[in-house]
Automatic annotation (TrEMBL):
PANTHER family, sorted: 2-IMINOBUTANOATE/2-IMINOPROPANOATE DEAMINASE RIDA (PTHR11803), 2-IMINOBUTANOATE_2-IMINOPROPANOATE DEAMINASE (PTHR11803:SF39)
Protein name per UniProt: RidA family protein
CDD domains: YjgF_YER057c_UK114_family
Xref: InterPro entries: RidA (IPR006056), RutC-like_sf (IPR035959), YjgF/YER057c/UK114 (IPR006175)
Family as reported in the entry's similarity comment: Belongs to the RutC family.
Family matches, as Gene3D superfamilies: RutC-like (3.30.1330.40)
A Pfam match: Ribonuc_L-PSP
Length: 423
């Protein structure tokens, strides 16, 4: 019997098999990573009739079918990410959302993007807890407790929880630049807004007694990608936060995404995934930090002072979004989207191998495309890296990418051995 967790990919006939080579859900350790669901009727394989409301309902039905097929329930959902073509459609999505989450609400991110596969209006993704874990034939910790928390020092919303902890991770709702006292977007431009987003994240972490430097992954959604330099000015005043982190020059893994629109007409929105050393009961508390964060960079992939290439904590490695940059020259590779996708995946492979892993350990891939029609060309390359099509996947079309790239890819990778406690 193996003492290590195993990657567990699963599919059901009750949900769409999807467009492209991926699994509906991939479990590893205490989380199920679901592929983003389009509003496809699993019987016909076509988009459902109707508008955003009908499409949102089908997306949630598909998520529920997948969740049911692995013997879980919708209250096991830890995080929901909603992508819409038109930000005004969020209200229609919310009507449906309430029927699937009438009591408990997970953490949540809402963002409008330039395009979605099959010209859909809505695409919805879920991260689901997995209490039994994935050590073959050996439940790990029984039914772990999901811990939810809200603080008045950060914006509250009846449709989302600020932070949901499960096992060794805290998953935060994406933070808008809202002053929690007034409930309004702060005055000023993107600089002030980025500062407020990060202040809100810090307030949430303080409310659960977790240091800011326990963040392992940051996702930044920008209305105007050209604002990234200003956001970076603010970002570097928050990271690193502690003397220990400054000594190690620790910064989280990071992905930056261009949004066509954000809720409340915000210019920026920031999402965080945070380590949780103590775990959730009945996991035993070894000490304040039973596990350590392992940050790693390799010369074989592009480097940046603003992010770490991969950050491991417990049983996951979080990889920063990779652009199609040649790590030796720092320049964009020649060619079109096929060559660019190949370079993005080569960079991910180099990072994965640098931490003693292989591409079969990847559980989730996120693809961001300048032109959604390029997905078929990307898939040609993608299948050479993932011939079995196991990882769960999300694909969205964006209005712009850093360095005017045609494609950007990030990944979540399993980490069977986990990260050790402090010596």
């Amino acid at each position: 019997m193996s003492n290590y967790n195993a990657v567990l990919a699963r599919n059901t006939e009750n949900a769409p098999k999807g467009i492209g080579p991926y699994s509906q859900t991939v479990a590893f350790s205490h989380y199920n990573n679901l592929s983003a669901q389009l509003p496809i009727d699993p019987k016909s394989g076509k988009l459902v009739a109707g508008g955003a409301k009908e499409q949102a309902e089908q997306c949630f039905k598909n998520i529920k079918a997948i969740v049911d097929s692995i013997n879980h329930v919708m209250s096991d959902v830890v995080r929901i990410t909603v992508f819409v073509k038109n930000i005004k459609d969020i209200d229609a999505v919310d009507e449906v959302y309430k029927t699937f989450f009438p009591g408990y609400v997970p953490t949540r991110t809402n963002v409008a993007v330039a395009a979605l596969p099959m010209d859909a209006l809505v695409q919805i993704e879920a991260l689901v807890s997995n209490g039994e874990g994935t050590i073959p034939n050996a439940p790990q910790a029984g039914d772990l407790i999901k811990l939810t928390n809200n603080t008045a020092n950060a914006p509250t919303c009846p449709l989302s929880t600020q932070v949901v902890a499960f096992s060794h991770y805290n998953n935060l709702s994406a933070q808008l630049p809202i002053d929690p006292k007034s409930g309004r977007v702060v005055a000023g431009g993107v600089k002030e807004q980025a500062g407020q987003c990060l202040k809100n994240i810090k307030a949430i972490l303080e409310s659960i007694d977790v240091p800011f430097d326990d963040i392992v992954k940051i996702n930044i959604f920008l209305k105007n990608l050209s604002d990234i330099e200003v956001v970076n000015e603010v970002y570097t005043t928050f990271f690193p936060d502690s003397a220990i982190a400054r000594t190690a020059a620790y910064v989280p893994a990071r992905t930056t995404v261009a949004a066509s629109a954000l809720p409340m007409d915000a210019l920026v929105q920031i999402e965080a995934v945070v380590s949780h050393g103590d775990g959730t009961p009945p996991q035993a508390v070894e000490d304040r930090h039973g596990l350590i964060i392992e940050a790693n960079n390799t010369e074989n992939a592009p480097k940046s002072s603003l992010y770490t290439q991969t950050v491991a904590f417990s049983h996951y490695n979080h990889i920063s979004a990779q652009l199609p940059l040649n790590p030796k020259t720092g320049e964009m590779v020649a060619g079109g989207v096929k060559e660019q996708a190949g370079q993005c995946l080569e960079n991910i492979k180099a990072i994965v191998e640098s931490v003693g892993h292989v591409m079969d350990d990847v559980v989730k891939v996120n693809i961001f495309l300048k032109n959604i029609a390029d997905i078929n060309a990307v898939d040609e390359v993608y299948t050479t890296f993932f011939p079995s099509g196991v990882p769960a996947r999300r694909t969205v079309g964006v209005s712009a990418l850093p360095k005017d790239a045609l494609v950007q890819i990030d990944a979540v990778v399993s980490n069977a051995e986990g990260t050790p406690p402090k010596a």
